[in-house]
Amino acid sequence: MNLFYTLTNFIIGTCLASHAAVICERINTTDFIFSRSRCNYCHFELALLDEIPLLSFLYLKGHCRYCQQKIPVELFLFELIGGFAFEHIDFNQSRDLATTILLFSIFLVAISDYRQKEFDLILLTPAITITLLCHHFTAFNLFDWFILFFFSSILGWYVFKQKLGLGDLFIYLILAIYFDPTSANQILLIASVLLIITYIVENNPKDYSYPFIPFILLGLIIKQWLLD
Ligand SMILES: [Zn+2]
User: Fold this and answer.
1) What pLDDT score was predicted for residue 139?
2) How far is the CA of 214 from the centre of ligand 1 (A)?
3) Is residue 61 helix, strand or coil?
4) Residue 173: its pLDDT value, please?
5) 39 Cα to the center of ligand 1, angstroms
6) Which alpha helices (H) appear in the chain, and where do they start and end?
7) How far apart are CA 188 and CA 71, in angstroms?
8) Residue 135: what pLDDT?
9) Cα(40) to centroid of ligand 1, in Å?
10) Bridge partners, 63 (sequence order)
């Protein structure tokens, strides 16, 4: 039963991530949620078998079935990360359903930030709404309030100095208010460590600016796996 639960959640996660990638791609089109996917190159409408998360990519060896153009490997990675991201969700619990919406919204922002190094604030609206509806303010103690104020001020200063995007501050506040400030700090710490490792491994120029929200998403997933 446990294996079934794990596998089902993994599959749901890959589907949600796959859909998030499609939404980010077509955010400015008229029907970006329900219209069928097309190949980015030949614009051929994809069949259901071409859209199975992870498996279609592997079966088609990362190429479009119709024009043989390469499908970006990042799509496979998004789906794989999605599989792990929703692994701890109990879809019978209302709080976890709210977490799903929040995670999906952060997924949208992370994909958009990864691709364009910016994102449309509308992608974060579901997460902001869920945070306002399911906030933990009443459970905050004095220490929580201090942490929230202290770290928000530090991040706010970096935003003011244009060393950090406003979106990063928004995501921090969302995590701190929906979960708690200590969890948000742990997520930020993991994200920063991952960013430093990426910087060392990739050896990009010093002034190269990395999108931070994908690292925050990874930090959130790793925290769920290791610390919860
Ligand atoms: Zn094609």
Assistant:
1) 86
2) 27
3) coil
4) 95
5) 5
6) 2-25, 55-59, 73-85, 94-116, 125-133, 142-160, 166-178, 181-202, 213-226
7) 31
8) 84
9) 6
10) 70
